[in-house]
Amino acid sequence: MKPITLLSVLLAASLLTPSFGQSFDRSVRKVDNREPSIPRPQQEAQVAEKLANLRKKTGKRPNIVWIVVDDMGYGDPGCYGGGEIAGAATPHLDTLANDGLRLTSCYAQQTCTPTRSAILTGRLPIRTGLTRPILAGDKVTKNPWADEISLATLLGNSGYTTVLTGKWHVGEAVGMRPHDVGFDEFYGYYPAQKEISQRVDGRRYPELVLDPLKMAAFEGLGIGHHLVHGFKGGRTEEISSVESTEDMGRADQVLTDFSIAKIKELAAKDKPFFLEHCFMKVHCDNYANPDLAGLSASKYPYKDAIVEVDLHVGALRAALEEAGVLENTLIFFTSDNGPQMDAWPDAGYTPFRGAKGTTFEGGVRVPGIAYWKGMIAPGRVSDDLFDLLDLFGTALNLAGVSTDTLPDDRYYDFIDQTSFLLHDNGRSQREAVYFWWGSELMACRMRQFKAHIKVVIPQATHKYIDLASVMDVGLAPWLFDLYLDPKEEMTVGHRLSPWLATVAGKLTAHGGTFRKYPPKNIGL
Ligand code: CA
Predict the structure, then answer these.
(1) Residue 93 and residue 305 in contact, taking contact as beta carbons nearer than 8 Å
(2) pTM confidence score
(3) How many CA atoms lie within 13 A of 490 on its CB side?
(4) Does any domain span residue 60?
(5) pLDDT score recorded for residue 135
(6) Between the CA of residue 135 and those of 113, 193, 247, 273, what are the distances in Å?
(7) Which helix H or strand E contains 455, and what residues bound it?
(8) How many angstroms does the Cα of residue 279 sit away from the middle of ligand 1?
């Protein structure tokens, strides 16, 4: 982080923060190095009792299954306004949402690596140093995991079996792989689909594939194109490699087959399990699974990929049911960021402004479905705030791992949202979501208000990554009322100055946490 940037943020925000503004803030900070949360003691007590009763019945702590899609847009699933109208029906996701809780204000970071590392550390990317995707040829100056404690480590130490299937994208050097940072087992690919498939797609990348010199240089970057099976302790096997676009198209079927077999195996054991299933799809470049081509009404590869992911989600749920553990398993389904519009038409749909790579809603608001048979009331919908970081604290609670065991030399951004997810009328305990772009603090949402102090502006239509600029706002932060204006087009700034001051005050307080707990730089 550039110190001048943080300083300017603090100054800009503090100028706009009269003391009365804090009155809208319901959150309370209980521990110095933790994010303040909205107290809901009754809700928490009732859910603790609900969990204790389930424990008596099952005799076992619950399993935790996260399903993460790569780059799926908020508006892709039918239950979020897409599905059939977008040429890609998603009956399994729609059923999952109908049978559980559909979150409408669920937030990711604006790109892959930041989200994936945040949910496993409970810490914002600016704190861990994993501030942007690790790309082909990137060399970090320091292993960010050397002093981070992953959720997999914490759950593993408490007696869980931990497995990550699919895309990792948080480093492929020794010491940074899933099975080096706490997972018992990893079965998947290190990078995103496009990094793997560009060496075999001569139609899309002729300048690379048809030029032996460029190909040699590309291969020299050492990007992993193998399906890897890794085990805690370091043993790492290469199962197969992607040698054609057909291989890439089949990857998610292979990964789902593995997770299904693993669920069957783990469900029969005494230990509870944590499975993070990360799809390769629907990140560009998508190739239809040759065994399932033409699945979607649209017939475009992206749409086929959506329908294929939907099928696999249905199969994962069915596997948990067949293994007899559906009633003792929290399933959380989400996407790691908004659609990558730069790759259109190999891109998803969002009804919001912006896309992947921006901190407008299109980049960060993602589908979030929590499903737990018998524990989450069917048909719930909530617009309360949920940051995917909160999955970390919620998993610790479910596993019975006390947050008192976490170190106090670093700041934790997660909030335990167990009672929000599991109470029949659960309300969020998160008061604010903070949005970062690399090492720039960009925006904050509180209730329906969102204030930007910096923005990512595309310089050509839908070019949010390849032709975009990060810009400062003018005299005042851009304040939007997302209920009046979900597309963030019409600012309400001075008309609602107490809210502007309150949200700016949250940004100031957030920026202040870095004085005592400085950000980590790993050279990204
Ligand atoms: Ca992604």
Answers:
(1) no
(2) 0.95
(3) 8
(4) yes
(5) 76
(6) 10, 12, 22, 31
(7) strand 454-458
(8) 10
